[in-house]
Structures are given as C-alpha cells and as structure tokens.
Amino acid sequence: MVTVAENPVYDDWFVLENEVMTARPEGRIEIYRILRRDLVRAGQNPVRQEEDWRFQVQFLHTDPPTISFSARQAAVPAHVWREGERYFADMKTILEPNGVAPVVDEEPVELVIESEPEAEAENTEEVELEVVEPAAESPKTLTDLLDSNRH
C-alpha cells in the first residue's frame, strides 16, 4: 500500500507534489497529492487543470481484511471513485505483476441464502464459492506483502 502511495502512476496527469505519511501500527496512509495537466481539445485553447487530493487508505483488521479509501476533502464522489480505482489498479499491478492471479486449489462451498418463507420457492438459487486458504509462508498483512515485493 505504501509503495503505491509513494509511486503514483498517471497516464494523463503530471504529479507535482506527493506527500505520504504512514502510521504502520494503525495500518493507515495519509496522501497529499497535487496533479496538473494541460487539456487540449480540438478547436479550443488549451486549459490548464490542477487537482489537489487528500485521501486516506487504511487496512482494517476485519474478517475478511478490508482496505478503506476515503477522501479527506470535499470532492465530487465520482472523482474520488476514479482516484480510488486508479490506486487499487496500481496495487493489483504490484500484487499480480503478470496480470495473472496465483493458482489455488478450489474447494466448492455451498451457500444458503435465507429469504422470506412465501418467496422461498420462486427465489431459490445455488451459488458456489471458492475458499482460499493462505499459504503457510504468506505475509501476515497486506503491508508486509507489499514491503516484501519492494525488495
């Protein structure tokens, strides 16, 4: 997570400033970033655009583990989602460098979905889930995994 925060990749923006503060015991990363670009559209004068981002990424010790991404400023939600998607796409690139997820043995698990008794007959559905057990040598946290890939 820290590696992605410290090395942002943008195809259409220049990163002017990128400050990253980490709080490892809490699994939290604070990011302040200034981006700039010149937008050129056909038949129009170039327009200089600048974006300031303040967001927080936090590893939550839940079951299953969760990563929270939140903007620390007022912003258009769709713009925040775009930044979040870009951040997690960069993480996926680091975790799966060849674009291929590691192969694991699959063990089908039956999932029972409870519903109202009268709607049960018409809304019955079987779903198969994949249970993935971590390897014995796998890192304890996502931060450990990212740090091990850095070296």
Can you tell me about this structure?
6% of the residues are buried. The chain has a domain at 2-100: TATA-Binding Protein (2-Layer Sandwich), CATH 3.30.310. By secondary structure, the protein is α+β, with helices and mostly antiparallel strands. It has 3 helices and 6 strands. The protein has a 4-stranded antiparallel beta sheet with strand order 1-2-3-4. The chain has a two-stranded antiparallel sheet with strand order 5-6.
By DSSP, the count of extended strands is 6
Which segments are poorly predicted (pLDDT under 50) over 5 or more consecutive residues? 115-121
Give the C-level CATH assignment of the domain at 2-100. Alpha Beta
Radius of gyration from the alpha-carbon trace, in angstroms:
21 Å
Second CATH tier, the architecture of the domain at 2-100? 2-Layer Sandwich
Q: Helix tally?
A: 3
Distance between termini?
Answer: 14 Å
Tell me the helix content. Answer: 10-25%
Topology:
Layout: H1 2-6, E1 14-23, E2 28-39, E3 47-60, E4 66-71, H2 77-95, E5 108-110, E6 128-130, H3 142-150
Antiparallel strand pairs: 1-2, 2-3, 3-4, 5-6
Gist of the model:
This protein starts with a helix and ends with a helix. It is an alpha+beta fold.
Considering the chains and any ligands shown, give keywords for the structure:
alpha+beta; two-stranded antiparallel sheet; 32% strand; 4-stranded antiparallel sheet; 151 residues; TATA-Binding Protein
